[in-house]
């Protein structure tokens, strides 16, 4: 029988993963573990106890971010002023995730099977969320029909790639241009 974690242990692990994600976004997946420990308010031993290798930590952050992105979609749709605003906010979270994801690919080159499984997990969890948000925006007349969720996610992903080579590159500005193109223009009379 599998042992379940105590609620405080789960909270601490989630706090650690959130801190690691923040550090990875700002400093890359090769950031020092001590920086992650300081951000999480834990000792380095705690990180290594949960995640014996850097790859274990990166995979856990990847899964944590996928789940956060997947769970955010319905919440944003319920709380945002419009379906397109919910989509915009979700894409912003997705961009944060993609910054970390690109570093993940480089760190897992030696484990192509593991990376392929993570990519499948990523698509299985996030495509339906993107589809729901995109469909809601189209149904509300706020987005132009005809774009598939995979096209939108690939477009955003491709715009985020340039950041790796140019510290002055701003993927958010280009993603905003993409979203403006997706937004339905309301006729003015």
Number of strands: 0
Gross morphology is globular
Helix content estimate: over 70%
Discrete helix count: 8
What proportion of the residues form beta strands (DSSP E)?
under 5%
Residue ranges: pLDDT <50 for 5 or more in a row? none
Annotation keywords:
189 residues, single chain
Overview of this protein structure:
- The protein is 74% helix and 0% strand.
- It has 189 residues and is mainly alpha-helical.
- Helix 7 (149-161) runs antiparallel to helix 8.
- It is globular.
Architecture blueprint of SSEs:
Elements: H1 7-27, H2 33-40, H3 44-50, H4 54-79, H5 83-107, H6 112-139, H7 149-161, H8 171-182
Summarize the model shown:
It contains eight helices and no strands. It has helices at 7-27, 33-40, 44-50, 54-79, 83-107, 112-139, 149-161, 171-182. The mean pLDDT is 85.
